[in-house]
């Protein structure tokens, strides 16, 4: 047990001075891939009546939608300068040639109306070239849901092009802002941070189910590091594994199983169990420490960390525990692998010269890409559902906070600031 505790702590926190190279894998600095972004004209929304209160509400939706589309890497916004060249928008008579002249592919027309204490936001998306409406939505709006309405519009636009919606998804994380490590969740952009657990014990290592209706996590509430499933929207808590040390739970892509690490048989091994606690199966059998499982998007494989070769390295095995193979070469500390939603990449943490940074392993090319270089401890990476963004924790600001970064190392954003915040999970 002493060996396990030391090993887990070193995986999670302790930085030891070391240098290493990848002798068999090529390291590149950045990744640039994808198709050109879709240009969107997003003129100010029309307000009726044009009262300050209505204009403020419409402006909030416009600002949030603007931020969502800019973050998406799918859309790019036509500049305000170019919008100023266009005649005032008349939603009843749209001059598509105007919008085509500033190279807008899509036109977003929003109308915010209020009558008899009832507010409605209506949005129409037009394909400029074909001069036809391709999406129309109407939302009844209350003051507390303005941001949600904007996120829903952005998600609908993502779905138009076969992209996974991300803007109404949540990030779950651990924070001590109220004096104890508890579970919280927030919007993708750090807004609407909400506490989920209320107890005097430590809650740790949360992970969402695929539909984001349940959270598997480790808690000391019974005096032992046990595995639980929290159903936050139902207020229900279910114990899953309560013998030995249980941690690093991860839902399978179909939401029916959980892979996790446990010492229930004496050594830290990886297990799989059904979400109702039945069907427990042990997947690894050796004297090494096996931990941090992450499912492939097909559910057929699991990537994990093991020190079976002498130092923590990244391995992949079949979901039944067979066909184990090492996919990292070189280095003396690699941890926290997370499989991308497209199945092509694995993000992981590596320690170099007393610093922890994020790296990407491309499974097709075997290339490794360094994502962070902040002179700090960057840990606990988790992918966005669309695979374009990664959320992680870092002490780059002096305290441990949660950040997001794009898959090519750009667009670094700090999402939290109150207390210390860590162990974020966006998707499984």
Given the structure, what is the number of helices? 5
The poorly predicted ranges are 1-32
Q: Could you give the count of β-strands?
A: 31
Structural class: mainly beta
Written account of the structure:
The protein is mainly beta. The chain is built from 5 helices and 31 strands. The strands form 7 sheets. Strands 2, 3, 4, 5, 6 and 7 form a 6-stranded mixed β-sheet that branches. A 5-stranded mixed β-sheet has the order 1-26-25-24-23, with no helix packed on it. Strands 10-9-8-31 form a 4-stranded antiparallel β-sheet, with no helix packed on it. Helix 2 runs parallel beside helix 5. The longest helix is centred in the first third of the chain and has 21 residues, at about 50-70. The protein starts with a helix and ends with a strand. Mean pLDDT is about 90; it is low at about 1-30.
Helices, strands, pairings?
Layout: H1 2-12, E1 27-28, E2 38-41, E3 46-48, H2 52-72, E4 75-77, H3 80-83, H4 96-101, E5 106-115, E6 118-127, E7 132-141, H5 146-160, E8 170-175, E9 182-187, E10 194-195, E11 203-208, E12 215-219, E13 226-231, E14 236-241, E15 246-251, E16 257-262, E17 269-274, E18 281-282, E19 290-295, E20 301-306, E21 313-318, E22 325-326, E23 334-339, E24 345-352, E25 355-362, E26 368-370, E27 378-383, E28 389-394, E29 401-406, E30 413-414, E31 421-425
């Amino acid at each position: 047990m002493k060996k396990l505790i030391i090993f887990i702590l070193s995986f999670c926190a302790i930085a030891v001075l070391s240098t290493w190279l990848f002798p068999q894998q090529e390291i590149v600095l950045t990744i640039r891939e994808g198709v050109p972004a879709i240009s969107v004209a997003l003129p100010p929304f029309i307000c009726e009546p044009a009262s300050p209160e209505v204009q403020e509400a419409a402006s909030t939706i416009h600002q949030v939608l603007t931020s969502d589309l800019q973050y998406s890497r799918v859309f790019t916004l036509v500049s305000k300068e170019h919008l100023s060249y266009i005649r005032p928008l008349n939603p009843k008579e749209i001059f598509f040639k105007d919008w085509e002249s500033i190279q807008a592919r899509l036109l977003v027309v929003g109308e915010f109306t209020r009558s008899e204490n009832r507010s409605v936001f209506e949005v129409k998306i037009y394909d400029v070239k074909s001069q036809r409406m391709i999406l129309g939505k109407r939302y009844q709006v209350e003051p507390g849901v303005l941001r949600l309405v904007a996120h829903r519009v952005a998600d609908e636009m993502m779905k138009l092009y076969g992209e996974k919606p991300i803007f109404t998804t949540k990030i779950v994380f651990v924070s001590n802002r109220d004096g104890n490590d508890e579970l919280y969740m927030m919007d993708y952009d750090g807004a609407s941070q909400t506490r989920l657990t209320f107890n005097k014990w430590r809650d740790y290592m949360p992970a969402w189910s695929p539909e984001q209706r349940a959270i598997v996590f480790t808690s000391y509430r019974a005096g032992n590091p046990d595995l639980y499933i929290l159903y936050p929207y139902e207020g229900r808590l279910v114990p899953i594994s309560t013998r030995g040390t249980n941690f690093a739970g991860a839902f399978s892509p179909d939401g029916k199983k959980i892979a996790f690490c446990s010492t229930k048989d004496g050594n830290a091994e990886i297990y799989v169990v059904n979400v109702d606690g039945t069907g427990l199966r042990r997947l690894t059998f050796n004297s090494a420490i096996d931990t941090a499982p992450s499912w492939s998007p097909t559910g057929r494989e699991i990537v994990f960390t093991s020190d079976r070769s002498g130092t923590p390295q990244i391995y992949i095995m079949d979901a039944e525990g067979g066909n184990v193979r090492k996919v990292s070469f070189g280095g003396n500390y690699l941890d926290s692998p997370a499989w991308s939603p497209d199945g092509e990449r694995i993000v992981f943490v590596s320690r170099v010269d007393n610093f922890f940074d994020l790296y990407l392993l491309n499974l097709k090319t075997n290339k490794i890409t360094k994502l962070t270089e902040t002179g700090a401890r960057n840990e606990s990476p988790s992918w966005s559902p669309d695979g374009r963004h990664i959320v992680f924790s870092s002490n780059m600001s002096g305290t441990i906070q949660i950040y997001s970064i794009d898959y090519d190392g750009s667009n670094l954003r700090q999402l939290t600031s109150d207390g210390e915040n860590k162990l974020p999970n966006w998707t499984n």
